[in-house]
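Q: Hand in one record:
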Amino acid sequence: MSSNRRKFLRNVTLGTGALVTGLNTFATVTVDEKDRSFKKKDNRSDAGFNMCGYTAPKIDTVRVGIVGLGMRGPGAVERLSFIEGVEIKALCDQYPDRVAKAQNILQKKNLPKATEYSGSKEAWKDMCNRTDLDLIYITTPWKLHTPIAVYAMQHGKHAASEVPAAQTIEECWQLVETSEKTKKHCVMLENCCYDFFELLTLNMARNGMFGELVHAEGAYLHDLRSLNFDKNGYAEMWRLKENASRNGNLYPTHGLGPVAQCLNINRGDQMDYLVSMSGNDFIMGAMAKERAATDSFYNEFKDKQYRGDMNTTVIKTVKGKTIMVQHDVSTPRPYSRIHTINGTKGMANKWPEPQRISFGEDWIKEAEYKALEEKYTLPIVKHIGAIAKNVGGHGGMDFIMDWRLIDNLRNGLALDQDVYDAALWSSIAPLSEQSVANRSRSMDVPDFTKGAWKINQPVNLTLDGGGNTTIRTVPEEKLKTN
């Protein structure tokens, strides 16, 4: 071990424990600048700069502006407030009362007051026009994700967007081309990539425990009927309107993202084409009519053609692997993202719980599972997992996602997910809509890397990329008192 490496391991700390956040099977790979340009397909103009593995300049203190303070935004304010090296400088939402509530989160923690932007659907532009922000954190309704991310990058900020990052193929290309042109990161905040079991199976896959992966499954199976029809839920009923105007796999990335990483999609393999099928709507249309019968508020929703209750999308990769992704937000069933990876030597499956692993016809015993968990759980989980659970956010994965993003920006490291992942994973929604509308016809999946997937390296969760500064966050003892 080199003296620099030993020094790095001594200096990286979190609370009272030393931290090496790593998939230790990965080597750091540097791509020459001359290798970062690739010819675009689909008649896209101009050569692009390869953002996969790109390291932006270090940011000692990441100055953040958060836009969208309804469902997801307040949680982001809460989580980011626990991470040292972060300054939340701006809060934005069209509704002033939401901004005020988010401001209270900072006030209760004795943090500096953020500048407030509200009262307009485009207040976020004024926020992005500021010159003292490094990152725009986007938690708005879906249709605003791409416009805000593009505008932020054009005005010198990195962009982090809730899922999906885009709703159309053209928007996917806008994200890619803007990120390449500005050399600003555009990351989709796919929290499920940081779930404890997803990270465990990713590390096991990297170490060959499942052999060569041949098939994977992911899903978003979540009964959202009460929330979608709640007048006090999503602003202006935007999510119900999405379900009443589109038919396909509208929300694919929670199930898709983690398995795509296991399969090295965009980094050694690429999606080739997909087919998608939706059943009929047997539930949401009837609910709308039932509610309209007693509440005129729902009259505008009672005659809509709602998406099919279940959508199943199957993807084939260039190297012959298959991925199944499902979407169902309207039938009464337990929550599931499925998360199945199947290889030549074994498989892993999360739902229905408990999460399980198999290397044959039977699931392994609990003692063997615990041994594998101890060996392959990533150090980042071992050292901040308890802190993440204390902070909250889907069992801790939201905090790990945020901590990792800030940590990489502060150390000038490549991000775990890049703009090509954001575009590709998001593109499954509009492609599935096109397939459903054409009797499940196969649809080609665009190569947003423009051929760079052949040389891009697998997701690297180590800090071997160079940063040897002390990683700072709030100690676990302090978290427990808040």
Summary: The domain at 193-377 is CATH 3.30.360.10 (Dihydrodipicolinate Reductase; domain 2). Residues 1-41, 463-482 have pLDDT under 50 and may be disordered. The first helix runs from residue 3 to 11.
